[in-house]
Amino acid sequence: MTAQHAHPAPRFTGAARPYGGGDPYADYRTADFPFARLTDLADRRLGAGVVAAADEFFAERENLLLPGRAVFDPEHFGHKGKVMDGWETRRRRGPSAGDPWPAQEDHDWALIRLGAPGVVHGVVVDTAHFRGNHPRAVSVEGASVPGTPGPEELLSDGVTWTTLLPRTPVGGHAANGFAVPAGRRFTHLRLSQYPDGGIARLRVYGEVVPDPAWLEALGTFDVVALENGGRVEDASDRFYSPPANTIRPGRSQRMDDGWETRRRRDRGHDWIRYRLAAQAEIRALEIDTACLKGNSAGWASVSVRDGAGTGTDEPEGAGDWREILPRTRLQPDTNHRFVLPAPAVGTYARVDVFPDGGISRLRLFGSLTGQGSAALAARHREPGG
Ligand SMILES: NC(=O)NC(NC(N)=O)C(=O)[O-]
């Protein structure tokens, strides 16, 4: 899918006002970035990590990838200074009394391992609560390094870094969002801030491009899982929690780690539509309602559809939806397992929940068809994949 940007993302520059008391988000600058519907490839819950940083004097690099928005407690000071929920470096200085200012090219950097390799469509460099100490500008580069390289290898001359976002001014206390022209499949990013400062969160939105050799070796795997290249295309409700939670790794540990819809007061029902990693044959499935007790979905059905749709709209050129699990009663806080009476082939899947409520995970176990394997291999090979 290519993120379409009819209007360029709004840009925020300059300092924010000093914190004046009350809700610290009252004067936060943000926008609705169209690419933010895609998977956050730098999600800690997907396995992303900040493997190294040039400096983290004031606040630790790990904060960059925490889920949820950054918190600010005006009274919280520690031995090093104001405790900040982000990655914050010390102030850079020039070489001498006569030249006390940092040089034009001075910067601090952090190396990020993506949770799943993929093609990046947009980044958000969030400077929430960094008002007088945000960087003047940032840049983002990507690299594709096989295996599990450590910081030394990533910093070695042998690694080629491709610019995703050239050095660009950013504003303080703002969600600085930038659409990125679709490039290659990257495994790692380098975030730089000029000349120094603090960044609360980094979000990297794009499409997971899994390694076909790995999936081939596994044979049977969860063909809708985020880490394997599955994704949510649309959903009826995003009120309490994102539908993409249903295809995250691991079991849900808290209610907000699943998908919970608001209480319906009409005669309708809620649903999520997914695109699978590629065309697959599904043989078994799980619907988990972990941590959803008084608000678990009452019943659920699952359907699949075949075809080669593109984009986020209803799948184009796809066949009809075929129900593979009829409307089935669900128990609260329970993992439900179903072996399908016959394998079902599809490229899209849909879960319908009745009448509302939540499920925490959907797992679709199967293997890629010959057509699915070929499509995935082609995507992995192509320069844009
Ligand atoms: N008030 C501050 O945040 N000052 C300093 N930063 C921290 N974290 O104390 C600084 O120099 O940016």
From TrEMBL:
It comes from the Bacteria. Residues 47-208, 229-367 form the Allantoicase domain. Belongs to the allantoicase family. It is an enzyme of class 3 (hydrolase). SUPFAM superfamilies: Galactose-binding domain-like (SSF49785). It holds the Pfam family Allantoicase. Pathway: Nitrogen metabolism; (S)-allantoin degradation; (S)-ureidoglycolate from allantoate (aminidohydrolase route): step 1/1. It catalyses: allantoate + H2O = (S)-ureidoglycolate + urea. Its EC number is 3.5.3.4. PANTHER family: ALLANTOICASE, INACTIVE ALLANTOICASE-RELATED. This is Probable allantoicase. Keywords: Hydrolase, Purine metabolism. Residues 235-261 are annotated as: Disordered. The keyword Thylakoid does not apply. The gene is alc. GO terms for molecular function: allantoicase activity.
